[in-house]
Amino acid sequence: MKRLALMLLASAAPAAAQQAAPAARSRTAPPAVAVDPKVAALRDKALGDDVAYAITEGLTTEIGQRGTGGSDAQARARDWGVAKLKALGFRNVRIETYTLPDVWQRGVETAEVVAPYPQVLRLTALGNSGATPATGLTAPIVYFASLGDLMAMPDGSLTGRIAFVSNAMQPTQDGSSYGSSGAARFVGPNIAAKKGAAAIVIRSIGTDHGRGPHAGTTNFDAGVTPIPAAALSVADAENLERMVKLGKPVSLKLTLTPRLIGPRQSGNVIAEVPGTDKDAGIVLVGGHLDSWELGTGAIDDASGLGITTAAAKLVMDAGRPRRTIRVVWFGDEEIGGFGGQEYAKAHAGERHASASESDFGADRVWRVETALPDSARGVGDRLAAALAPLGIVRGSGVGGDGTDIGPVIRTGVAGIDLNQSGLRYFDVHHTPEDTLDRVDPEQLRQNVAAWTTMLAIVANAPEDIGPVARQP
Amino acid sequence: MKRLALMLLASAAPAAAQQAAPAARSRTAPPAVAVDPKVAALRDKALGDDVAYAITEGLTTEIGQRGTGGSDAQARARDWGVAKLKALGFRNVRIETYTLPDVWQRGVETAEVVAPYPQVLRLTALGNSGATPATGLTAPIVYFASLGDLMAMPDGSLTGRIAFVSNAMQPTQDGSSYGSSGAARFVGPNIAAKKGAAAIVIRSIGTDHGRGPHAGTTNFDAGVTPIPAAALSVADAENLERMVKLGKPVSLKLTLTPRLIGPRQSGNVIAEVPGTDKDAGIVLVGGHLDSWELGTGAIDDASGLGITTAAAKLVMDAGRPRRTIRVVWFGDEEIGGFGGQEYAKAHAGERHASASESDFGADRVWRVETALPDSARGVGDRLAAALAPLGIVRGSGVGGDGTDIGPVIRTGVAGIDLNQSGLRYFDVHHTPEDTLDRVDPEQLRQNVAAWTTMLAIVANAPEDIGPVARQP
């Protein structure tokens, strides 16, 4: 899940174009739209689904950590996926390979307070971090309560220091706090490097108080030499803050030895439910197969694969849809969205009717948002009506969010988002704690029901679903 | 906290002698006992205490991990304690040193599934574990759902195998599930070694589902060579169980390199509130200063030091008590209760009126249990009456529980236990997650109020508090 990172960093990201009054404040009655009884029946059947859990359990148990960046485990996971998707009855199941140019790989990662309160701290290197010497780097820290405080420092003022940015994150249902708090990770290291810092540690971008640090990528501008950059667990960051507040200078020793290991082969796994109308466009759904290697990637994103695959299977088993449904298990999302970029390149010549991804955990879907052309406005109304019994509200934002579908969406394809609740997501996001037990089977089934409903409506919509104009 | 371990292992442990009908089922009215207004006022003042939190915060921040077994950090913590206790106004503040004969020290600890589902698992060596070769030990596992299943195996049947005992623990308010589930740790390795196992891994003795393994000691019989013995995190044990249930043989590679490092100096920190009556006996209270090194030992047991010290200070500040109150910050509890044993040896010639320890976290005290001589029966009644407004029930078991006070208690000293709720305790007990944020300041203050009440009553009791007869 890196949507808000991208929104912050990429000018090509979709803007909130069609803003209206928030739905929650509207007192007008929704349009009276009948729900197709076949859709309703399929939705309710999906509430008994076990396929999504089986995929989530299988990937986290039989494969485990699926290291981002072309790992061997990802290759095993692709083979596992091909076998699973074929066994479920999908057509055109295949791996589409691609080459990652120069892969960043985690190394040793340790930290300790050297003075005045010697003790070990827990952290993890951020993706694209530079390395310390193998024997470590010891330096005094400079504390910043927020990224803004770091940004206010004069250039060169941090020479020989380790910047410590410790902004705290609060949970939000829509995940928007990831954008505001996450900036410390997304751009903090680049800013610290420009100001001369020897290294940077941040408080993990997470809503827990645990010892498992939250991994994630950062990015340095071209021409900026990457400095060592790591996330302390929230508990360790809180401890370090308390030390700072005692008033004595605090020095840290960091040992981070990530390195670039050259090109690696990787790939996307693709499966289809062939439609009857080749000209109606593909309905693209999926999630990502790779994970950060600290956990087993249950909520990020085995469950997303489970949800979208289970929904596609339910629609497939109900009869051939009008549009082809294409399920993609994208590779190497975490380290830079490579699978999605490669998919868009490889399939640039095909017509996509819509694109949707599930990459925000496995808690219940609470909102649907769309970006549909005027010709398909009725699709959105039918979606809202059919999803309402699942407790899903219609949002007023613009659909089409996600790192993997982003490159397709940006070509003008319609987007439909089924937003999971983010209230627990950042407790374990990118941590060692992202394991199967975090997935609530009942909430997972609600997800499958929402996605099944969406696919049944969109893949069979009689309207043309053409390009969407987006604000630049 | 190792009480139930000791109850299981040591025949000298106090038996449940004075069992009566559980208080909860009794419909008889409690004795009408007036609460001394001075005691009530002190109890209510204690609900505003900040000293306990300051000690807990200080130890976890300025010292951090206080490695059990004569570590340098423990030495720093003793010096910190002496300064703190003097600053609080205690008298006779001192360190009483002792020598640990041959200290067990944690080394490398890694594990991976080699086949059929290669992936990294998280574990920690149990105290007194043997070592694998430095290059690791690879062997097939044999799964046991319970310790009983392991015990049923014929001798020699586990040669060349790694035993995997995976019993699950449920939370209990009184912590009794630690005794039943904990046996897998306390005696499982010894049993597996006798049956020829190359090593043993257990599911952590904990009530969470996290990735932080739960440390703790195990013990091998004289003549049994220690085998490598480790606790998988609960999430990893659950994952390994799922692999086992898929039916293929599972092999693990373990690398555990703990070693014995010879004798080490360590010590207890002692402080006193001198009483007016030298012959009335010492009221002994305290907790332990060392911690497992995975966390910072906030609930185990910095908070116990904070609670007992804060209570002693409140009573001290209210005027000199009849009996001397002695606060002991015991050393090296976790690795074998050495501080408590050394204290009992060093103070064998002194009269103790009572002994109590706080070593079960910082959640609210829910029960008081006593073992008092008949001559001091009124003390128990007054305690029950004065503690009731704090929501504390009078239990029907025998007081005097705890590793550190055990050696004193077993000489016939009266025991008074203020039992904290164990419902959350084993979520983080002995894990990396035992950090300051787990301490709820409000519940901590309720503890201080309970201990203040107890000390005010017991230290000033006009009755003689003489020896207690205990069942062998």
UniProtKB/TrEMBL annotation, chains A, B:
Keywords: Carboxypeptidase, Endoplasmic reticulum, Glycoprotein, Golgi apparatus, Hydrolase, Lysosome, Metal-binding, Metalloprotease, Protease, Secreted, Signal, Zinc, Zymogen. Its main location: endoplasmic reticulum. Residues 1-17 form the signal peptide. InterPro entries: CPQ, Peptidase_M28. Residues 268-451 form the Peptidase M28 domain. It is found in: Endoplasmic reticulum; Golgi apparatus; Lysosome; Secreted. Pfam families: Peptidase_M28. Homodimer. The monomeric form is inactive while the homodimer is active. This is Carboxypeptidase Q.
